Amino acid sequence: MRRLTIKMKDLLSPAGDQEAGAVTALTAVMMVVLLLMAAMVINTGMAYSEKAQLQNGADAAALAAADCTSRTACTQAQAQAIAANLANMNSNDNASNVNTLDFSVPGQVTATTSTLSNGQPFLALPFAGITKVSEGRVGATATAVWSSGVPVTGPSILPLTFGTCQVFLGATDTPVVLHGKDKCNAWNPASGLNAPGGFGYLQADANCHLTLSVDQWAKTDSGNGVSGACKAKVFTSTLVGQTVLVPIFGDVRGTGNNVEYKIIGWGAFVVYGWSFPPGPNKTVGKWTGSGDGIQGKFIKILSYEEGFTYGQPKPGDPDFGTTAPPLVKLIK
After folding, report:
1. Which of 263, 63, 271, 19 is nearest to 150 (CA)?
2. Beta strands of 21-138 (E only): which ranges?
3. Which of 248, 180, 257, 166 is nearest to 213 (CA)?
4. How far apart are CA 331 and CA 323, in angstroms?
5. Predicted pLDDT at 209
6. Which residue, among 266, 180, 181, has the nearest Cα to 218 in the 3D structure?
7. What 3 state SS string does 131-185 have?
8. What does residue 120 show for φ and ψ, rounded to 5 degrees?
9. Is 231:270 a contact under the CB 8 Å cutoff?
10. How far apart are CA 213 and CA 265, in angstroms?
11. Are 113 and 139 in contact (CB under 8 A)?
């Protein structure tokens, strides 16, 4: 058997020196890579932090500008000053730039913010000698909308429309009978003629859903009554005592199943009860009228209903007591 003998001089050979040198070189390269990665992480973190601050500032600026414009009709310069102040307050160094406040879309404002650091429109980044990137430009955008005025378009919970002469704000509850059977009438500013009162049945889909707009001609329900779907989904005992927005008509055209109602506004109606054919249990809640109809009262209301669009009333349009306070919200 042969013996393996290693002498000390073999360990100190040039081959051993080469391996040690390779490790040293590799360590140096890795240190540079790690330093570069650390610099990039720090720079990216600074940019993300700046972005978050600018986004908070853009959100606050857009909301403030929208609120100012919707409530007090402030000027562009006033809105810009308010927006700039809030954008700065949301920045860690109390400095940012509101580039623009765009009011080009009615009922909407878009705020765009960007970095303002030591008077410069960019973020100074460290380790420029390593990353070859010395500055970062960061920005953010937010859009706020507002709505106010009177209801224009929205879902009608009840598949009914009421004549203008039924709207007595603050009156005690009264029965309202079907259109054509009521004696009251009201002046219609659109046509200059008397518009009959009462209420009319309106067409709704299979789920009793119905969306109407001011100035729309709404079709009557060909069944001349409340459909089974609406009785099952809407006209239940839980409706009694509820306040709902209902469409008001100011003109009527057509005859029989071709009757259409001209919607001229929305009113807030408190439901007390009704009596609708057919069926033995047609009367629910309070009903003091003769024949069939719905009972309740119109009230003046200040609220914002989801699903409705709001706008300013036209000159000469009647006031049915439904208005919305300015509502401001972010959309993006």
Report:
1. 263
2. 96-102, 108-115, 123-124, 135-136
3. 248
4. 23
5. 92
6. 266
7. HCCCEECCEEEEEEEEEEEEEEEEECCCCEEEEHHHCCCCCCCEEEEECCCCCCE
8. -110, 145
9. no
10. 8
11. yes
Q: Is 57 helix (H, G, I), strand (E, B) or coil?
A: helix
Tell me the pLDDT tens digit for each residue of 57-116: 899 999 999 888 877 778 888 989 999 898 889 888 887 888 889 999 888 899 999 887
Query: Token pair of 155, please?
Result: 């879902």
The C-alpha angle 82, 86, 87, rounded to 5 degrees, equals 115
Select the more confidently predicted residue: 150 or 29.
Answer: 150
Q: Which residue has the tokens 């993006």?
A: 332
DSSP label at 237? G
68 φ, ψ (degrees, to nearest 5): -60, -45
DSSP 113: E
SS3 129: helix
Q: Is the pLDDT of residue 242 over 70?
A: yes
How do residues 246-271 score in pLDDT, each as one tens digit? 999 988 888 877 889 999 999 999 99
Distance of CA 204 to the CA centre of its chain: 25
Write out the two tokens for 276.
């609708």
196: preceding bond cis by omega (within 30 degrees): no
Residue type, 196: P
Q: With bands split at pLDDT 50, 70 and 90, how would you rate the model's confidence at 189? A: very low
Tokens of 181: 């059977």
